[in-house]
Amino acid sequence: MSGRYDDIHRRSLADPDAFWGEAAEHIHWFRRWDRVLDHDRPPFTRWFVGGETNIAYNALDRHVAAGRGDQAALLYESPVTNTELRLTYRQLRDRVALFAGALAAKGVVKGDRVVIYMPMVPEAVVAMLACVRLGAIHSVVFGGFAANELATRIDDARPKLIVSASCGIEGQKVIPYKPLLDAAIDKASHKPDACIILQRSMEKAALKPGRDTDWQEAVAAAKPADCVPVKATDPSYILYTSGTTGIPKGVVRDTGGHMVALRWSMENIYAMKPGEVWWTASDVGWVVGHSYIVYAPLLHGLTTILYEGKPVGTPDAAAFWRVIAKHGAVALFTAPTAFRAIRKEDPEGSLIGQHDLSEFRTLFLAGERCDPNTLEWAEEKLGVPVIDHWWQTETGWPICANCMGIERFPVKPGSATKPVPGWNVQVVDAHAQPVKRGEIGALVMKLPLPPGSLQTLWHNDAGFEKSYMSDYPGHYKTGDAGYIDEDGYVFVMSRTDDIINVAGHRLSTGAMEEVLARHPDVAECAVIGVADALKGQLPLGMMVLKAGVSRPHEEIAREVVQMVREAIGPVAAFKTALVVDRLPKTRSGKILRGTMQKIADGESYRMPATIDDPAILSEIGGRLNDAGYPQKE
Ligand code: COA
Ligand code: AMP
User: Fold this and answer.
1) Which atom of ligand 2 lies closest to the CA of 478?
2) What pTM was estimated for this model as a whole?
3) 506-626 has which CATH code?
4) Closest CA to ligand 2's atom 13
5) For 89-98, how does the pLDDT look when each residue is reduced to its tens digit (9 = 90+)?
6) For ligand 1, atom 41, which residue shows the shortest CA distance?
């Protein structure tokens, strides 16, 4: 006998038009769609073709009109500045309308790009919603990226305007953002017409006359702007994510499909009811922040918490419990690394009991593989279901989850449970043939992808097809490997490319190698991700020096560490580089990064049949052992 989940999942694949058409009834359309699904030009998929709508209208104005105006929409909690703010739906709508007016006064119109480089302050959310109110396309850049990364994104997105702040706060440190922004604009070939800068009390930024305007002044002079109807298929945002090279990929999200999928997910995956308090502890610079701090909760009429702080050290490991108890949050979504950080500080979980978590009912984890120890610890200490779920920047919302609003399955630690309705997940071998149940292979999704997933890469349809759609024709390549067990549970095990996951942040080792290779003393190099008890993975660089270089190795290592920090940013957490005599390679010259990673992690490995010189592996093993690898918890 099939259960509710099986029925719904089957229906979503068998009749996507009816399934998503029904889900779209929860969204307000200025013009109804002509067609739900258009997959006439695979691999491109368009949803709700002919429909016209607006995200800000659906996230704010619609709720005010329906009587939710006095409900809290956004609760800002900032232990690092000792401030808090409560904005109702009406207040948030008014702030957004006014800032949209400020953007419009600077000439921003539908289709223009706006880069947002902001810390976790309410103005970041206001700026995002103000863009979509005008039909402008935002591209939020995470604050932990360096000027160089920001410049790359400015050149790709070509924004008319940039919104930024004087500083961010990282634990106890004030990080000035404005010098990074100025350096990025200097470096970029594209120059924005204008910048709007939020001055924070901890740091006053110097404004460039003629280009920069103070946020408060821009808003004081503005008139509220109304929602601009846009096509369902128009882009709402671009979010850059790491690819296999130093050039990030600009993931393009549409408008209509995006809203339909996100709202549906709040009800069916997260089991949230309008009016409840929801908290995603992430950053608006990541997809998790876009989807589940800002858009999905507001589309569903929830109260969303915006938290500027860390899980530990701001001020302590009880920060999460304090915020949950204070606001009666019923669910928290964060990355496993946050829980590893809390567990390290408070292994017995004794701080949890000091707070009233009686309303709290579910913890959702994603962003990296969730190790069973962390999951079991959280389950035991919190006494609520802990739901690991799998997704990516590209997909925009979960591919696999235990759908709490549909049918709750027993949790299997290490598994993200089952494919969410809309996703046809398969495991295939290198020839795109399905593997047997339980066998590891590439995780792919049969097309068409459901609404909400990426439309293309910004101005790069060919890159989109090449990166995701060519290796397994008719399927989307996730870049993850894993297996599906006898019960249909999906286990995501590792990446199949050179992407690593550091504290839930997705990074490219290829991009780091490009930086190391620029050092004048480095002949060749490799960067691998090694297991780390707190951050999941950490990058480790290995360098072969040019002949005749006699400078101290530690000095060169310090220099490349600094270079990565300056080129990519502190978020790369690149702190270790070792000098080695040679790198192991295949006979065709490919560096055996995977094998080195296994050695560094102390895992068993098979000698690659194509290895050029097996002796190099034992040399590398010796060098890693000397440097303290494999590391013990
Ligand atoms: N702006 C500027 N710098 C930033 C930044 C930001 N928004 N975010 C991080 N950084 C800096 C940090 O200050 C740190 O710099 P340092 O090398 O000078 O110390 C560096 O980038 C690495 O940051 P992070 O990986 O966050 O490490 P951490 O030691 O500061 O904190 C955790 C570790 C686990 C507490 C933290 O990573 C965390 O809370 N993770 C939660 C997971 C998460 O939000 N994931 C997002 C996807 S769901
Ligand atoms: P990002 O695009 O930054 O969200 O990173 C997406 C990648 O993070 C995925 O492709 C996976 O490699 C990894 N990931 C995210 N969630 C999970 C999960 N629940 N289990 C295993 N890996 C995950």
Assistant:
1) 10
2) 0.96
3) 3.30.300.30
4) 368
5) 999 999 999 9
6) 338
